[in-house]
Specification:
Blueprint (H helix, E strand, L loop, with lengths): L2 E5 L4 H12 L5 E4 L7 H6 L7 E4 L2 E4 L1 H9 L11 H24 L5 H24 L10 H6 L5 H4 L13 H11 L2 H5 L5 H10 L9
Parallel strand pairs: 1-2
Antiparallel strand pairs: 1-3, 3-4
Pfam family, one: GST_C
Protein name: Glutathione S-transferase
InterPro entries: Glutathione-S-Trfase_C-like, Glutathione_S-Trfase, Glutathione_S-Trfase_N, GST_C, GST_Omega/HSP26
Length: 216
């Protein structure tokens, strides 16, 4: 059955699906759309008018974590644990990544020192939870890569793209998280899952929001 994945170029939710497909070596067709000028066919196809969506033949899947969960079923060797409880825990920790995405982008879009500090405080609270989990295992819920790690891998690609502009250490006090992110960025399929001009696109997107941190 053919797979057609519809994405935008800088969306971390989209990149996690592309990464999972590439890692599992599953054939697919990729279609990019401009979310500021969405075509009529996409509006009709996507229930939430968001990317990514995956066409599985005539069936349309939406929500990135649901999509990667389905993709995982297409290969004989699952990226989820065999134990039912551990499988549920893996999915729960993957869901936690949604909070990280929201706060991280809010942090780098904050227009005032007050809102920047507020989001930084929230980010550090989330990082504290990740640090606790990573004290127990090398990856987010095991000592080997699991599906949850593919949910996290694209989140922090924004940081290298903005490295020249960032005057603070976002991982200060979180050594295990820093190591984890380095391990994710070392995944050979991650860079090939990003568009060629990804860093530039991220920079333009963030700069257009005129955030506080760029004024420092």
């Amino acid at each position: 059955m053919s797979l057609v994945l519809v994405v935008s170029k800088t969306c971390p939710h989209c990149i996690r699906v592309v990464l999972t497909l590439n890692h599992l070596k599953i054939p697919y067709e990729l279609k990019y759309i401009d979310m500021e000028n969405t075509p009529d066919w996409f509006i009709k196809a996507s229930p939430l008018e968001k990317v990514p969506i995956l066409f599985v033949g005539d069936t349309i899947l939406f929500e990135s974590l649901v999509i990667i969960d389905y993709i995982n079923t297409l290969v004989p060797s699952s990226l989820l644990p065999n134990d039912n409880l551990q499988r549920a825990l893996n999915r729960a920790r993957a869901e936690f990544s949604q909070e990280i995405i929201e706060i991280l982008w809010s942090l780098f879009s904050a227009k005032t020192l007050e809102t920047f500090n507020l989001y930084m405080k929230e980010m550090r609270q989330l990082f504290s939870q990740l640090e606790i989990w990573l004290q127990q295992t090398k990856f987010i819920s095991d000592n080997i890569l699991t599906l949850a790690d593919f949910a996290y891998a694209p989140i922090f690609t924004i940081l290298p793209a903005l490295k020249q502009f960032i005057q603070f250490d976002i991982f200060d006090g979180f050594p295990r998280l820093r190591e984890y992110v380095d391990n994710l960025h070392a995944l050979p399929q991650l860079q090939m899952s990003l568009v060629e001009n990804y860093d530039l696109l991220i920079q333009k997107k963030i700069q257009s929001r005129e955030p506080y941190f760029l004024k420092q």
